């Protein structure tokens, strides 16, 4: 009974969140993630040769900002005469139907009259920017007359100041619209306010004003529905089209899948007449920028980085197609109903077998996801999904965990007994077969791995404490999964941002060296994938160095009377740690020791150097592993052979020939930090020839 009541309480807590009686931390981010997943799955695909022919983006790109002798128009800001030539070309030579400027034309300039004249050749919509500090400039936007609107319950976004265009240009324009792209707390742009408020006037978005100018339509009118004694806005009607909005007058951006959903033309092609006349006949043209330093880049559910002008284009295309998803005012009550539908599962789930309960919860979750996906894809209806899903999964997890706690108490007692001595994966093995393994320290041939984050101090200084915790948790989780789940290693410990693991114990493994090196390469691949995901979240990227070494080590339960751990010790372990540190010095991702290399007879490895590290008198060869021979291209193998020849020339003091070999390597495989390092080293040796006792060994005194 207690279990069922607790499970139902979880459902009721989620229902209270849906009713906005309280807010559960993290649930909004989960909702955003689920929305992004639905958009990625259901977004309209656009092939590269099927770009939307109704719109075109004229891009002030890097090519447009080149000097005139290089085919561009010069650096930004351009004189107003150049912008006038661009606008004139769009109307006279290209036949554009309407032009929207995602540019803030603030401040008076000598060429304003010329630009105003060009803007009168056709409907031009100018952009306004709004902010909350720093003062206003330019002619104030006229805003909309909403006196005829009914009393509506809205939460319009307000701004104190505006940066508008100069009066002459505003008078020449067919309309104006704000260019504010809304970023959620996770940095992703999912919505754009269709109307915002400043100085007690409501101002439309650029996309909305472009639609008005296209058909010379009147101001947008609200479409609302009555809920009791309250009128809630559902949409805005403009130019015969309905634009669904939420209670904050925001529209969801109907992003489409594809690398080029809207055609893009360089601004220089238009202004200099290199684009065929009539290429943009009858099209909606948006002028924006993707050039470095000018572009307002945004992150979207489908793009890690997208120029902001594309957001306006996707909105306009969605308006014309009727693809903008609607989140009706009754969405909250629908969410409450969906959450409460999980109460029977929470109440009766404890009487079912765990597999039956999990299967039932899975079926409910699939129905929720598929049903809501179908509503979004076929009816453009968006309903909250996070709380209903959690209402299914949290009580199920509670029921299963409760049953597990009762049924496996004796098994967990054994695990608890050893939990302070060994890593979790060893605990599990001991619990399954405690007599099969020994915790007694012993000496064995093993392979150890050390991985450390490069530039972690910079990362930590650029993030808040919570963001840093999330960053390091995601990183360590991903690396741990590679080591444990993919390559069956034993996680030893985390040392700050560093990871230590080993192979060959407690379970003996003849292939421990190969498994460790495979894990090191997989960790680098995972780090690159994590970097892309981190950058998409607005976090710093991650880069790691990995050192791997094999040899005789002592492994077992070691430590003090206060704390013990299942770990490895020995000279070979210390060398593995030194190798990780040397990855920075040589500019390579992974370094392995000589003993590890000897255990990889069928691998392609590039010898990096002979080194004498701190604490060791005998020099060792270190290598960069590239992969099993059958997985390394013949070209890469040939480069390794050339590299080995170059090293031989260096060791034989043939400096000139070594430099020539390095030049060839740099040409065939550019960007290699190791090539640059050796070129500098050989040049130094040519200028300062070593003595007769020089053995080609590099000394490292630091750890």
What can you see in these coordinates?
The protein folds into 3 domains: 51-321, no CATH class; 438-631, Alpha-Beta Plaits (2-Layer Sandwich); 633-703, no CATH class. Strands 18, 19, 20, 21, 22, 23, 24, 25 and 26 form a 9-stranded mixed sheet that branches. Strands 1, 2, 3, 5, 6, 14 and 15 form a 7-stranded mixed sheet that branches. A 3-stranded mixed sheet has the order 4-8-9. 38% of the residues are buried. Helix content is 42%, strand content 20%. It has 22 helices and 26 strands. A hairpin with a 7-residue loop joins strand 24 and strand 25 (620-628). The radius of gyration is 32 Å and the shape is flat. With 703 residues, it is an alpha/beta fold. The longest helix has 26 residues, at 354-379.
Protein topology:
Layout: H1 2-18, H2 27-42, E1 55-59, H3 80-92, E2 98-101, H4 112-119, E3 124-131, E4 157-158, E5 161-163, H5 167-172, E6 175-178, E7 191-193, E8 195-198, E9 201-204, H6 206-215, E10 221-227, E11 230-238, E12 241-244, E13 250-252, E14 264-266, H7 267-271, E15 284-288, E16 297-298, E17 306-307, H8 308-321, H9 331-340, H10 343-348, H11 354-379, H12 386-407, H13 409-418, H14 424-432, E18 442-453, H15 456-462, H16 465-486, E19 490-495, E20 498-503, H17 512-536, E21 544-559, E22 564-569, H18 571-586, E23 590-593, H19 594-598, E24 603-612, E25 620-628, H20 634-651, H21 655-668, H22 673-687, E26 697-699
Parallel strand pairs: 1-14, 1-15, 2-3, 2-15, 3-6, 4-8, 21-23, 24-26
Antiparallel strand pairs: 3-5, 7-13, 8-9, 10-11, 11-12, 16-17, 18-20, 18-21, 19-20, 21-22, 23-25, 24-25
Helix pairs in contact: 1-9, 1-12, 3-4, 6-8, 9-12, 11-12, 13-14, 16-17, 20-21, 21-22
